[in-house]
Amino acid sequence: MLLGNLGRHGNGPIYESLSNKFSKASxxxxxxxxxxxRTQGIMEKSxxxxxxxxxxxxxxxxxxxxxLQHEQMHSALLREYEDSLKIxxxxxxxxxxxxxxxxxxxxxxxxxxxxxxxxxxxxxxxKQEILSQSPLCTNQTDTPACPxxxxxxxxxxxxxxxxxxxxxxxxxxxxxxVVVATIPTQSRGTNIxxxxxxxxxxxxxxxxxxxxxxxLFHQSCNEFKMTNSIYxxxxxxxxxxxxxxxTELSRQRLSKVNFDNYKAAISFVNIQGNHWKLLYIVPVISxxxxxxxAHNPAEAQESEEAxxxxxxxxxxxxxxxxxxxxxxxWKGATMPHHVQQDGDSxxxxxxxxxxxxxxxxxxxxxxTFGTSRTEMAAVRQELxxxxxxxxxxxxxxxxxxxxxxxxxxxxxxxxxxIQCDICGRWYHSQCLDMDQASFQEAGTKEWLxxxxx
Length: 453
What we know:
Strand content: 5-15%
GO molecular function: cysteine-type peptidase activity; zinc ion binding
Number of domains: 3
Mean pLDDT: 79
Structural class: alpha/beta
Number of helices: 11
Keywords: Hydrolase, Metal-binding, Protease, Zinc, Zinc-finger
Domain PHD-type: 396-453
Shape: elongated
Organism: Oryzias javanicus (Javanese ricefish)
């Protein structure tokens, strides 16, 4: 149809077949062809089809190739048009609505992740009776202040199965790396792990570790509901800000923390590896307190130097686009407080002052607690009880070494667990470095963990 009747160019059976093919094609209704605009229609259609072939990136060198490609494309369009005529209208099935009979209701199936309660709900009165019988809830007003003893402290995190042989504060046990408490922090989903070797620092005449002090800070912040008002700054970050090298300061910029969301910040720093000081920052009064639990005449001067360090820190954060607390002109300040009367209670005094600040926030408290040796020993016992009672560690689902449900770095589908027959703690065999032979042997006899040996 594009080139007209090709049979007009010669004689013979081939030209006759071309003439017959042209006559049959011209009689079809699908062809846009009339005798009036025969020449014009052929030229326009041929030009359009030639452009379409060129647009598709096909090279045509001879006329017969062009005719062959056009026939293929044109036949495809015709088949598509014929298929469109075969599509029938969509039928909609309409049924009469009827009420379902209750007798036809099938029995409800229990969900896949739903299991019945193994025991009835524990009412408040029964729960109080159980807790009153547990050593976790000893009345502090009835018991006189005395040094820490292994008979008064809780034995494990499970209040229903206390055992004196698994007492974390027992002086007869060697220090281990077993997790005895986990305290939730301000960051969602993160906890501070308190291990057995760290909680032993709460015994009399011992220096408190940084993990225990920071865990007590977060426990007090949760107790007094100050999580949205006072930011607890990590003690390592606070030490870098006050005493670290300037090159290390940018690594502790806390890019995910917006200090404008808080009304104060509190932390503590270590001095020469054997002394703790309290750091308290209040932007409303533009003051930085560096509280020394020991008697220190230069406390005001040290607070002034700490204020200059904080000023440099917030200016450094401005270079990273963080302008919170950057316009405040910090100055050093002091507060009246009691001092320690021994050489190892600096961490305990820091915790007690921090608790008073959180309890009376935003007002500066009047510190009235005593710092004698007997009083410090009793306070150490109370702090240990608070860590153990406020712990959120799930000893039935997590390992007592790695505090996770799966061993770190393990990709195995099945995990070998072993439970102590005395304290009931669960351990990963991988965390205990147990081979398969030792694991199989431990299952045939009584097995004691490193806390109960």
